[in-house]
Amino acid sequence: MEGLRRPSEVEEEDRRVRILRRLVDFSLAYIAQSSIPLDQAHAVVEGVKRYALRLFPDKEATFDLIYLPRFRRLLQEKYRLH
C-alpha cells in the first residue's frame, strides 16, 4: 500500500496546487495588464517557476508542460514575438 497517501498529505498537496494556480493566474494578469518590459516579464516567469519548484521539488517538467505554454503564449502576443 505504498501508493496510498493520508488525507492530510492530499490536503497539503491540494493547498500547494491552489497557491500555485493563484500565483500563475496573478502573474499572467500582471504581465498582461502592466507595461513592464520583456526582460522583466521573463523575470516574473522565472520567479514563478522557482516558487513552483519550491512547492513541488523535482517537478520542473510538469511546470514546463502545464504552465510554461501559457506564459509563452502571453509573451508572444503581448510583445509580438515569433
SSE layout:
Layout: H1 7-33, H2 38-55, H3 60-66, H4 68-79
Written description of the protein model:
By secondary structure, this protein is mainly α. The chain has one domain (about 10-80). Helix content is about 80%, strand content about 0%. The chain is elongated. It starts with 6 loop residues before the first helix and ends with a helix.
Q: How many E-type strands?
A: 0
Count of structural domains: 1
What is the string of SSEs from the N terminus onward? HHHH
Low-confidence stretches: none
Largest beta-sheet details: none
Gyration radius (Cα, Å) is 15 Å
Separation, N- and C-terminal Cα atoms = 49 Å
Strand content: under 5%
> What is the mean predicted local confidence, pLDDT?
95
Q: In which range does the helix fraction lie? A: over 70%
Overall geometry comes to elongated
Helix-and-strand structural type: mainly alpha
- What is the helix tally? 4
So what's the oligomer here?
single chain
Provide a brief overview of the structure.
With 82 residues, the protein is mostly helical. Helix content is 78%, strand content 0%. It is elongated and about 45 Å long.
Spell out the key features of this protein:
single chain, 82 residues, mainly alpha, 0% strand, 4 helices
